[in-house]
Every structure is written in C-alpha cells, then in structure tokens.
C-alpha cells in the first residue's frame, strides 16, 4: 500500500478544498423593502411579488391594528 512521503500541509490541503463549499444561489433584494429573498418568491417581510401586494404579513397586520398613540403631555411648572 502506498504511503505519502511527506505530510500534506494545511495550506496545500485547504487550497485543494477551495471548490468544495456550499454556495447560495438565486438570492436577490426585494424591490419593495430591500430584504434579501430567494428569486421568484414572495417576500416574507412585506408580502410583495413583482411589485404587487400578494400576501398579508403579520407585521403589516400588527401595524394596522395598533391603536393611535396619544401625544405626551408637557410638564408645567
């Protein structure tokens, strides 16, 4: 059985393995809110697809249902 004459250095080993990595493909920025999403999918942040409102999100519902806040009273001396 063949045995290597010298040990493979960390650098040589890592240089050889540079192509063995995972790549995330198809990520784009949402045109409406700018969030990073997968291409050709509805944005989970704002619910838009191709510039049109398609999905009602929980965040949008929370903003609509939130009652109007009263302005703070000024202190009088």
TrEMBL record:
Keywords: Ribonucleoprotein, Ribosomal protein. The keyword Ribosomal protein applies. It holds the Pfam family Ribosomal_L32p. InterPro entries: Ribosomal_bL32, Ribosomal_bL32_bact, Ribosomal_zn-bd. GO terms for molecular function: structural constituent of ribosome. One of its GO terms (cellular component) is large ribosomal subunit. One of its GO terms (biological process) is translation. HAMAP family: Ribosomal_bL32. Belongs to the bacterial ribosomal protein bL32 family. This is Large ribosomal subunit protein bL32. It comes from Candidatus Dojkabacteria bacterium. The gene is rpmF.
């Amino acid at each position: 059985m063949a045995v290597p004459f010298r040990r493979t250095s960390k650098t040589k080993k890592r240089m050889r393995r540079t192509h063995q990595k995972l790549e995330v493909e198809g990520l784009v920025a949402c045109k409406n809110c700018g969030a990073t999403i997968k291409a050709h999918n509805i944005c989970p942040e704002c619910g838009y697809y191709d510039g049109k409102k398609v999905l009602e999100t929980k965040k949008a519902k929370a903003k609509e249902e939130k009652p109007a806040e009263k302005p703070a009273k000024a202190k009088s001396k």
